[in-house]
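Now for one record:
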Amino acid sequence: MFTTVLLTERQLSATDVRFVTTLHGAEPVSFLVLMRPREAEAVLLRAIDDVALGAFDQAVHERGESEGTGADAHPAEALERSLAALRAAGAEAVGRVVEGHPLEALEAVVGQTGADEVVVLTAPHLIEEFFQADWASQARRKVRVPVLKVYAHLDEEPAPAPETVREGANAPGHGPATTAAHGQP
């Protein structure tokens, strides 16, 4: 069985679940989900990203807005919904909400479990990525397994409750094409 540590900042959407559960075709996958929601720091990062993209009007309004689907849910509830969606798609899944710096927890979990890979599922953070200070870039320097960065599908609803997940939803070829480059340290 392939073991993947999935580091995310929000509840997974149905497309996110389909994508991560089909990365290895028919091979069974076990997920260890680490959820670290971004709070106040996300407002500043989004505003800086908006300015960098020339979206000045959006930058001004960032303070009162949530970061998108799944950001308003309590982290423990969002984690449980994400785990249920992964299980409904046929994967094994356990996880926890991370307090503090997520990369310390990531490094410990990879070391303790002998994970095969890390998938960082996040919203784009342009400034962090430019300076290689984003979670995936930092993870590549800390863990000795491949790290794949995947952009979360922010414009979708969170994954449906397990009883509404269709059979065959994790068939190969149904994943999105929005992944960033991956690599090994």
